[in-house]
């Protein structure tokens, strides 16, 4: 684990960071900026409890009262019972032109934010597991633009989960893809949406205190409840 309490900027040119099963970056009271690099992590540390969903999964990048910014990075994570790329608490997350792919056996979430502000632009996200939540918000604000968010659950999945949060979307595609193929994520992405099995998933999982403002070019595909466009959905 790498703790960061100051200001760190890593600017790579075709650079690669390979993380061990226990590898993580924790930013507290500082800021971290990554650009032009790829991060790869296979396997995760042993679970502390046999109940895989009893606590949130360990994050590759955890940000507390800090700033995290990425430009032109890619993250690939696979293996383990649970997985999370970024967890933010009381922080600012600003990502652009980046790609996140993660897979786990039981539960996967790309971004988990509490009391935070997120600006995501030109982002490509793919998550697969038994249960999947692409982005989970608690008391947070999200602005998502020109991005694709794909989930591939074998049991249940949501693209965006929000609790007492605000979400603004523009030119965004939210997709649910079949995880039944044994060949993994690559074949899942290649399947025709017309062949998707029936499911009971929704693109948004919201409480009564959350709001979603869908501006232009927003599409939800493959979900049981799919909305092409909407505004201020309760």
- What class do helices, strands and sheet pairing give? mainly beta
Q: Shape from CA axes?
A: globular
Radius of gyration: 17 Å
Q: How is the biggest beta sheet arranged?
A: 16 strands, parallel
Beta-strand portion reads over 45%
Low-confidence blocks of residues? 48-54, 181-193, 227-234
Q: Give the % helix.
A: under 10%
Oligomeric category: single chain
Count of DSSP strands: 16
What is the rounded distance between the termini? 40 Å
The pLDDT mean sits at 85
Q: How many alpha or pi helices? A: 1
| Element pattern in H and E | EEEEEEEEEEEEEHEEE
In words, what does this structure look like?
This protein has 234 residues and is mainly β. Helix content is 3%, strand content 61%. The longest helix has 6 residues, at 185-190.
Task: Output the keywords.
single chain, 234 residues, 3% helix, globular, disordered C terminus
Write the SSE topology.
Blueprint: E1 2-4, E2 7-19, E3 25-28, E4 31-42, E5 59-64, E6 67-71, E7 74-78, E8 82-89, E9 92-103, E10 107-114, E11 117-138, E12 141-163, E13 166-176, H1 185-190, E14 204-206, E15 211-214, E16 219-221
């Amino acid at each position: 684990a790498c703790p960061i309490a100051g200001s760190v900027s890593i600017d790579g040119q075709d650079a690669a960071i390979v993380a061990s099963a226990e590898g993580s970056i924790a930013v507290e009271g500082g800021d971290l900026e990554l650009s032009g690099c790829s991060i790869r992590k296979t396997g995760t540390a042993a679970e502390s409890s046999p109940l895989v969903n009893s606590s949130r999964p360990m994050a590759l990048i955890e940000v507390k009262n800090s700033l995290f910014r990425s430009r032109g990075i890619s993250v690939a994570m696979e293996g383990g019972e649970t997985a999370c790329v970024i967890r933010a608490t009381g922080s600012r997350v600003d990502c652009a032109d980046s790609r996140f792919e993660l897979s786990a056996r039981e539960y996967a979430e790309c971004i988990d934010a509490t009391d935070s502000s997120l600006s995501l632009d030109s982002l490509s996200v793919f998550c697969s597991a038994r249960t999947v939540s692409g982005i989970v918000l608690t008391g947070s604000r999200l602005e998502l633009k020109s991005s694709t968010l794909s989930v591939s659950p074998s049991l249940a999945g949501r693209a965006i989960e929000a609790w007492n949060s605000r979400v603004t979307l523009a030119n965004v595609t939210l997709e649910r893809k079949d995880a039944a193929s044994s060949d993994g994520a690559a074949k899942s992405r290649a399947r025709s949406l017309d062949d998707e099995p029936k499911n009971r998933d929704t693109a948004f999982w919201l409480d009564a205190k959350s709001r979603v403002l869908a501006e232009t070019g927003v599409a939800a595909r493959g979900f049981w409840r799919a909305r092409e466009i909407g505004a201020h959905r309760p």
